[in-house]
Design brief:
The structure holds 2 protein chains of 2 kinds.
Chain A lengths: L1 E2 H21 L3 H26 L3 H31 L13
Helix pairs in contact in A: 1-2, 2-3
Chain B lengths: L2 H22 L3 H21 L3 H26 L14 H20 L6 E2 L9 H10 L2 H22 L9 H4 L1
Helix pairs in contact in B: 1-2, 2-3
The chains are: A mainly alpha, B mainly alpha.
Chain lengths: 100, 176
């Protein structure tokens, strides 16, 4: 029997690692992967709460989050490829032409 | 220590270790592969939590579709090597913020540890996908259909974004 707080702490750790990845990495592909890690951490908390409250709403929310994540990755990676074509780089520090 | 708790700790160690490995790896391909292992361990957590359908869609959608897309783009762009990208001197602020975020999350969990809920035997059959489908197609049918539209829009957007701009043909005006 695992207390639900263990799952929540694990979810918090994974989310913080994902946020840290967004902050410390400069490669936009790895930043995307960190965002996926954060979505996964949130999903884990959802499923843990589903198990506690014994309703299906959390599982269905996770299912919808997966669909949104797939859409986000498809558009995001297309953007990365388009940016790479015009600038030959995926370093986010160099994507500053809107800075003025 | 029960078997379930032992399994939880082993899987949690794998999940955290692969997440850290993804953060620190110098190669984008290795980062993607670390993330695949992380997704699989989270899928096993879903199995532990009586959600086999979510666990299998996690493996099919995340570890399958999304990570293959990532690896495909990494290979396409040719960015396997990221040496020297991590600058250790600029890490202080991000690390401090990450630790603060983690401390807040853990604090909120510890605050309610007195009335903690143990995950034991459940009365309802949470692991039955047909029951979940019944809820999905009755109470949540509108979000489900909006997801379909979202996926279509994302597909069109990805195709438009990745289409190469054609150079203007010299005799374009005559044929129109």
């Amino acid at each position: 029997m695992v207390p639900v707080s263990y799952y929540l702490v694990l979810s918090a750790i994974l989310f913080s690692l994902g946020a840290l990845g967004v902050l410390i990495r400069r490669n936009s592909l790895v930043i995307f992967m960190s965002i996926e890690l954060m979505l996964n951490a949130a999903n884990l908390a959802f499923v843990a709460f589903t198990r506690v409250h014994e309703t299906f709403s959390g599982q269905i929310f996770v299912f919808l989050v997966m669909a949104v994540a797939a859409a986000e990755v498809a558009v995001g990676l297309a953007l990365v490829v388009a940016i790479y074509r015009s600038r030959q780089s995926v370093d986010i520090d160099q994507m500053s032409s809107l800075k003025g | 220590m029960s078997l379930e708790l032992l399994l939880f700790f082993i899987l949690a160690a794998i999940a955290i270790a692969t997440a850290i490995g993804m953060l620190l790896s110098r190669s984008a391909v290795y980062a993607a592969l670390y993330l695949v292992v992380n997704f699989v361990s989270v899928a096993i957590f879903y199995l532990l939590l009586d959600a086999p359908f979510i666990a299998l869609s996690q493996i099919a959608v995340y570890a399958g579709a999304i990570m293959v897309l990532f690896l495909f783009v990494i290979m396409l762009i040719g960015l396997e090597n990221l040496a020297g990208e991590l600058n250790w001197r600029q890490l202080a602020w991000p690390l401090a913020m990450g630790v603060i975020l983690l401390a807040q999350g853990v604090f909120l969990v510890i605050q309610r540890v007195g009335r903690d809920v143990y995950i034991g035997q459940t009365g309802t059959q949470l692991s039955d996908p047909s029951l979940m489908a019944k809820v999905l197609f009755t109470d949540y049918v509108l979000p489900f259909q909006i997801t379909a539209v979202l996926l279509l829009v994302a597909m069109i957007g990805a195709i438009v974004l990745s289409k190469r701009e054609k150079p203007a043909l010299p005799n374009q005006g005559k044929e129109a």
